[in-house]
Structure formats: structure tokens, C-alpha cells
Amino acid sequence: MSALPTRDDYRYFCPITTRWSDNDLYGHVNNVVYYSYFDSAANRYLIEEGGLDIQAGDIVGFVVNSGCEYHAPIAYPERIEAGVRVEKLGNSSVRYGIAIFREGREEAVAHGHFVHVFVERAANRSVPIPPRLREALAAIVVPSPA
């Protein structure tokens, strides 16, 4: 088994508070909820750092692929953080690496990936990533290991 991702592997952190509705019958955050954390963290970064206008902008990001590995359970009420990095920056798409951390802890409780394709809202067709978004995404690229 490989080592768990740590905070040092990520460039941007988004605080998240678990919600009562996140828990499942087993008393921990349900696996599908992690994808909403991934979505929220990636989009928050795009809005805050890249100027993405999710309400009225001409360009939007569509999720086309995602995956997650789970290492330890979390539950409501907990404060957590999503660490975000860019693993691959293409012409019209980006692959994020995202991990979930307990507040103040170094090792991830879960980690995975999330792929956005940027699309012109009106035409519903992929387009090159706009310059401001590309610059923001390039700022959190983590070089691949040699």
C-alpha cells in the first residue's frame, strides 16, 4: 500500500463543515458526499482565484470524470478541509487531485480526482480554458514525480 497523501501534496485548501445530512445509517459521511466536497472545493477555487462566474458567465466547467479512495471515516459534526491541486492542465480540460483532511491533521482521510471540461454555455461545446482561469489553474499545478 502506498503512503497516504499529506497536506504537502496540495496547493489550495478549502474549509468545509460536515452537515447532519452528510451522515448515513452507519454514522459516518456517506461515500457519495465526498464528491460534493470535491465539486465545492474545485469550484470555490475557480470562483475566487480564476474569476469564474457560475451564474452569468459564458464559460462553465462540466464534470466528466471523478474517483475517490477512502482511508478513514469522518462524521457530523467535524471540520474538514479539501486540499486541491492540478494534476493535468489540458487545452479545454483540467484534472484536479483533491484530498479530504480532518482539520489540523496531515494525512488524508480520502483522496481522488475530478475532471472539468470547460464549455461555452450557449453552444454547449468545449472551448479552450480562458486565460484568467488557466493562470489560476497553473498556479496550483503539482509536477508529476520523475
TrEMBL record:
Family matches, as Gene3D superfamilies: Hotdog Thioesterase
Lineage: superkingdom: Bacteria
Residues in Thioesterase domain copies: 26-107
Keyword Transmembrane belongs to the record: no
SUPFAM superfamilies per record: Thioesterase/thiol ester dehydrase-isomerase
InterPro entries given in the database record: 4-hydroxybenzoyl-CoA_TE, HotDog_dom_sf, Thioestr_dom
A matching Pfam family: 4HBT
The keyword Hydrolase appears for this protein: yes
UniProt KW keywords: Hydrolase
Single GO MF annotation: fatty acyl-CoA hydrolase activity
Family assignment from sequence similarity: Belongs to the 4-hydroxybenzoyl-CoA thioesterase family.
Protein name: Acyl-CoA thioesterase
Source species of the chain: Parahaliea maris
